[in-house]
Amino acid sequence: MSKRLSLAEWLRVERAVWTVDAYVQGLPGRARRAIRRELRTNLRASAAEVGARTAIRNLGSLRRLAIGYLEAEYGEGRPRPQLLKGILWGSVASLVLLVALIVGYESFLAGLEASTPVPGTYRWEVARVLGVAGEVTVDDTGFAEYRLAFSYPYFLYPIVVGLIGARIWRLWPVWWRRVVRDRAMRQASAHP
Amino acid sequence: MTVHDPQLLKGVLSLLLLGLLAEQESYGYQLVQRLRRLGLSGLAEGTVYPALARLEREGRVVGRLVQSRSGPARKYYRPTADGYAALRDGSAAWQAMAAAVTPILARPIPDEPAPPSDED
Question: Can you give the pTM of this predicted structure?
């Protein structure tokens, strides 16, 4: 006979659902939401009969379940996006960009100091394409004010490198199948 | 007797799901219960849910959300035309296989294999 779930049981179910979600990180958000929703519904129905602990045990290995979902979406042995690789490539790209900008800006400042500048504003424009612009204002007393401005390309390049590193295009067939499936489901729901 | 060999089950699980869904629309946990009532008592739910997702990806079943009195909406599945075709083909293949395999496995198992003969 089914019963209402206690708070502890509800939390156990949520923990199992989110553990599986963590394992299926390589799926698009839509697919993950659908898996969470369905798994939660099934687990709650099962937990209402046998208790959350047994319901989760009856699922078997959560990791194995997640692999099953990944294989169901991509097919067995098919290439999948590599989220961790994407994060790694994005981080390396940000680091390389940062080092290049520091070296470039230091060189600009060294050149400026070496030329004993007259009062005025000096702009470092060469890195504008990378989303960074520098400005040094020298006043009559020889005091210099330094300014660095960051714009969107500075953040865009590492993101693009990260997406390429993650092989993001491998999500496309999954995303498209999901759109087609959702459309079929809406039609089936509208005309049962 | 219960079926516990996951490898044996893996080959026919899709067919079983299609067969049960052809009889009645069901949601994931309901299918698990139906399979258990039919004798697959050791069945792990974790094998059924991805199998359903795979059938849906292959376009063999379609799901629809139905409001439930006891909680969130449940996703009920039913076979598509492709699903019915796969069920018919799969059932025929399974029965042909069972017809060949069952007589062999139904024979009494000898303690020792017979010595080699020159026949064949």
Answer: 0.66
